[in-house]
Amino acid sequence: MMFRFINNFFFIGILVILTYSCKRPSAKNSYTKTADGYWYSLVSYSQDNDSVAPAYSRWVIAEFKTQRDSVFFDTKNDLRDRFFIKSAVSSSANYLKKAISFCAEGDSMSVLIHPADFFMQQFKSPVPLFCQKDSVIKVNFKVKKLLTQQQLAKLTQNIANEEQLEIETYFGSAKKAELSKDPLGFYWVQKPESADTSGVYKGQLITLSYSGGFLNGRMIDQSTEEFKLIYGTPDQLIKGLNIVISRLKKGQTSKIILPSHLAFGENGSSNGSVPPFTPMLYKIKIIDIKTNPEADQTPVRKKTTT
C-alpha cells in the first residue's frame, strides 16, 4: 500500500489547493501532495461545472478509516446522516472542513490526515488506542447536496420535528410519552420512588456514575465509576443531567430520556459525536451525597409534583 511510503514525520492532512478563482482540485484517482505537505485525491466530480457553486452549507456523507481501511465512524450511521459543513471555512485550521468547502455538489474525495491532527480537529480528543500506530487516517467523503441558508433552515426544522416522533416511538405512543414526561422537561424511563423530593443543595459533593447514548442503545458518553462534582458548578454536566440529579437521593438509580434542548442542542455536541436535535437516553446512579457546611442550604429547585 502507498501508505508505507508516506513519511511519518509529515503532518499529513488535507489542504485543497486554494485559489482566488475557487477552482476544484484537478487531481483524480491518485494522491497528490500539496506545497504544504498534505495529500488528497479527487475520486469523482460533477461534469456540470468546474467551479464551486456558492452555497451556505454542504450536506456531506463521510467515512473515517484507519490506515488498514477499517471504518470506525461513518456519518450516515453515527451522525444519522446529519453532517453539515458551513462553506465559509477556507481559512479554517480543520483540514477536513476546508477540503469539503472547496468541493461542488456530487464531488467525492479521499484525503489523508495525520491521526493527531484528525482526532483533535474532528473530535477534540487524543488519538485512541486502535490507531496509535497508524501514520494516517483515511477520510472518504461525498458532497451530497449544496444548501442555501433557507434550505438548511427548512431541513433543520424537519429534523427538529422528527425528534418528538422519535421519543414517542420509543415509548410506543404519544400518550405514553406524555405520561412519562416530567414537569422539568425530561422523560422518565425508570423512575425511583420519592423522586419528587429534592435533598440536593448547591455546593454539595455528589458522587455518581452515568452512561448515555442514542435511543437505539448506542452508547457515546460514560463517566468514571465514581464521578465527583460540586453540585451547582456550571459546565460540569449537560443541563438535563443536572436537572435529574435534583430529583434523586443517595443510592437511587434512574433511566431517563433527555430531549435535545436538555442535552446537546440544535447543533449537536462540540466534539462531533452527537448530531443536531438528538434525544439522549441516560442511566444515572447517585452513589453518595456529602453536605458542605459552608454551602448555600437552599434547594436548587422548588418541589414539583407530577
Report on the architecture of this protein.
- This protein has helices spanning 75-78, 95-101, 115-123, 149-171, 174-179, 239-245, and strands at residues 32-33, 39-44, 57-65, 71-74, 84-86, 108-113, 137-147, 187-190, 205-213, 219-222, 227-230, 253-258, 280-290.
- With 306 residues, it is α+β, with helices and mostly antiparallel strands.
- It has 2 domains: 2-147, Chitinase A, domain 3 (Roll); 166-290, Roll (Chitinase A, domain 3).
- The strands form 2 sheets. Strands 1, 2, 3, 4, 5, 6 and 7 form a 7-stranded antiparallel beta sheet that branches. Strands 8, 9, 10, 11, 12 and 13 form a 6-stranded antiparallel beta sheet that branches.
- The protein starts with 31 loop residues before the first strand and ends in a 16-residue tail after the last strand.
Keywords for this entry:
6 helices, globular, six-stranded antiparallel beta sheet, single chain, disordered N terminus, seven-stranded antiparallel beta sheet, 26% strand, Chitinase A, domain 3, disordered C terminus, 306 residues, alpha+beta
Quaternary arrangement of the chains shown?
single chain
Total strand count, please? 13
Major sheet details: 7 strands, antiparallel
CATH architecture descriptor text of the largest domain? Roll
* CATH top level label of the largest domain: Alpha Beta
Low-confidence stretches: 1-22, 300-306
Query: Using only CA atoms, what is the Rg?
Result: 23 Å
What is the structure about, briefly put?
The chain is built from 6 helices and 13 strands. With 306 residues, the protein is α+β, with helices and mostly antiparallel strands.
